[in-house]
Design a protein that fits this description.
By secondary structure, this protein is of the alpha/beta class. The protein is built from 19 helices and 24 strands. The longest helix has 15 residues.
């Protein structure tokens, strides 16, 4: 039976695919030899996405983009150079506009309009996959309808502000508006700042969000922390007025969930604001801290971060690339890329894969551009990801219980080890150990499975087709593992229902490693 809109239930630990919609459709058009929009994507494409095991597809950049924003981009020498760096045969027509310079929350006609999006959502829902879209709370394009019709929704200035600080303030005819910004960087010249403390804005946002919620299963909220009371007040001071009660996000999220109770809210979040945003109603927040520590090789930092409260951990979204970050294959050699993927995608919470990540794309495409450069596929990396995604299709990785494992150094070197380990318990059991260093390393890994004491277990890693017989006592007391640089074990742990170890059974000693 096909789910109807609103019926889809996202699992607690979903796997998310981010698609840069405009260049993705452009590539499909080239491969199919005919014009395609969201309403005419071939069924086999949706089959492939669902078959890979994704629970949510984030179609990034479906809303109408701003011609005024395109003009600003074409006049910016630094942006133009980034476009030429990404596309050797770049021309001005490749600039389709920034998806975060929103002219209106209406699906762009060139992508299929509202009907095309509805068709895409229907195809996804028929395969049990939800749809995630963008919402940009901090700013809109200068040609958004609100700029001329609802000036009370914006941070305003005057002629003196324009003269004093023309990078932050702009005269748009009869009023002076502030450009959008965050407190640590110069203003963005292509967008206009919304006022988080304006009751009129909040009413407009709720109306907009309810319309968005009728078209999808969740939103990824751009730079969500900028609309928190203390951040917004620190950025704009007295210009914003006094913060009303309740705070911005609780008011908006509660209003949406009154009619869409299962709607998913994802926050792009930095500056250690993740926990606070979770408390304000977000289901998942970007885990930039884990990303930074994995990418810099800070293994103690990884272990310390993962030792946090399990509820907090389950509300984070993990990634090794997205449209804002460099392509993982451009930063990491193949062995390290695989280790980083294992360490990220087997965590609890939401896990994100960026379109092209599994194929080894190396070019970080500016979001203004409407097509990808030609790049060869990394067939070995693609095969690795296909195997990993197959493992992650086990329901335990969506609905099970995740726990960090105790990890100590070698028997003859009990100091810190670069190996980090965790386990999953649900319909099955999984034990993961990853060496986040370039050198060979060993550790003893203890899984919290006291019910396995006195029982025999088989450990099978389907990503590398290796298997070991061990005892439940080993797993609880400390299984010795030894791994090459950037190596891993992704073990499914199987135990016979009635099998136990007899007195004469032989169990491996502490130096008989799984390696």
């Amino acid at each position: 039976m096909t789910a109807s809109p609103g019926d889809l239930k996202v699992p607690p630990h979903p796997l998310v695919l981010e698609i840069d919609t405009w260049p993705w459709l452009s590539a499909l058009t080239d491969s199919e030899g005919r014009g395609l929009d969201l309403g005419s994507v071939p069924a086999l494409v949706w089959d492939s996405i669902a078959g890979a095991g994704y629970d949510l597809v984030w179609l990034m950049g479906v809303w109408r983009r701003s011609p005024a924003g395109i003009g600003v981009a074409l006049d910016n020498p630094d942006l133009m150079q980034s476009f030429r760096d990404a596309l050797p045969d770049f021309n001005d027509d490749d600039v389709v506009g920034s998806p975060y310079c929103v002219r209106d929350y209406v699906v762009d006609d060139r992508l299929g309009g509202r009907a095309g999006l509805a068709a895409a959502r229907s195809e996804l829902q028929a395969r049990g996959v939800g749809l995630l879209l963008d919402f940009v709370p901090n700013h809109v394009a200068p040609d958004h309808p609100w700029v001329s019709g609802h000036v009370d929704r914006f941070v305003l200035g005057d002629a003196a502000d324009v003269e004093r600080d023309p990078a932050t303030f702009v005269d748009l005819g009869d009023r002076v508006f502030a450009h959008g910004r965050d407190p640590y960087f110069p203003a963005w010249p292509d967008v206009i700042q919304l006022n988080a403390f304006s009751p009129e804005l909040r009413a407009g946002v709720v109306e907009t969000m309810l319309d968005i919620a009728d078209q999808c299963d969740g939103v990824r909220c751009d730079m969500a922390m900028l609309m928190m009371d203390d951040v917004f007040a620190a950025t704009w001071g007295d210009r914003a007025g006094a913060p009303p009660s309740p705070a911005y996000w609780p008011e908006v999220i509660e209003a949406v969930r009154r009619s869409h109770p299962a709607f998913v809210f994802v926050a792009e979040a930095y500056w250690d604001r993740e926990f606070a945003l979770q408390q304000q109603g977000f289901d998942y927040c970007y885990d930039k801290r884990l990303y930074d520590r994995i990418m810099t090789g800070d293994t103690p930092g990884v272990a310390g971060h993962l030792s946090g409260d399990p509820t907090y951990q389950s509300g984070l979204l993990r990634f090794i690339e997205n449209h804002d970050e460099p392509r993982a294959s451009s930063l990491l050699d193949p062995a390290r890329h695989r280790a980083a993927a294992i360490a990220t995608l087997t965590q609890c919470g939401a896990r994100l894969v960026h379109d092209g990540q599994t194929k080894g794309r190396r070019t970080h495409l500016p979001v203004f551009l409407g097509r990808f450069p030609d790049e060869p596929e990394d067939l070995e990396l693609d095969a690795f990801y296909r195997g990993l995604l197959q493992v992650l299709s086990d329901p335990t990785f969506r609905t099970g219980e995740w726990r960090l494992c105790g990890t100590t150094g070698w028997v003859n070197d009990p100091g810190a080890s670069p190996i980090v380990s965790w386990c999953w318990t649900g319909e099955s059991r999984w034990l993961v150990a990853v060496n986040l260093s370039a050198g060979r390393a060993g550790a003893q890994v203890a899984a919290p499975w006291p019910d396995l004491r006195g029982r025999a277990a088989q450990l099978h890693d389907p990503t590398q087709e290796v298997a070991y017989d061990r005892s439940g006592d080993d797993l609880n007391d400390g299984l010795y593992v030894e791994l090459p640089g950037w190596g891993w074990h992704l073990f499914r742990v199987d135990v016979a229902a009635s099998e136990s170890l007899g007195a004469a059974d032989q169990t491996p000693g502490p130096r008989e490693e799984a390696s």
